[in-house]
Amino acid sequence: MLAEKALVALTALKRLESERGLGVHEGTTDQVRRALEAAAILFIESGQGRGVMFLHETSGNEARQARVRRVRSPT
């Protein structure tokens, strides 16, 4: 569970995920980001918007492959 991996309370994670823009401590956001990055999720931002990249190890000596999925930007 993400809350356990990030060492944050489940209620704090629910506030962070809320579409109503509920506030959370900056430290909570940082801990969740670090937990996701530790799970090979990379946050990206470009002129085309924000998104995440899922990094996957491949078999053999091949380089990492990445699959990019666009994420809706907050308005």
Protein architecture, described:
- The protein is of the alpha+beta class.
- The chain contains three helices and three strands.
- A three-stranded antiparallel β-sheet has the order 1-2-3.
- The radius of gyration is 14 Å and the shape is globular.
- It starts with a helix and ends in a 5-residue tail after the last strand.
- The C terminus is likely disordered.
The total of helices stands at: 3
Please report the total strand number as a whole number. Answer: 3
Helix content: 25-40%
> Terminal Cα separation, in Å?
28 Å
What features would you highlight for this structure?
globular; alpha+beta
Helix-strand layout with pairing:
Elements: H1 2-6, H2 10-17, H3 26-38, E1 41-46, E2 49-56, E3 65-70
Antiparallel strand pairs: 1-2, 2-3
Short summary of the structure?
The protein is an alpha+beta fold and 75 residues long. Helix content is 35%, strand content 27%.
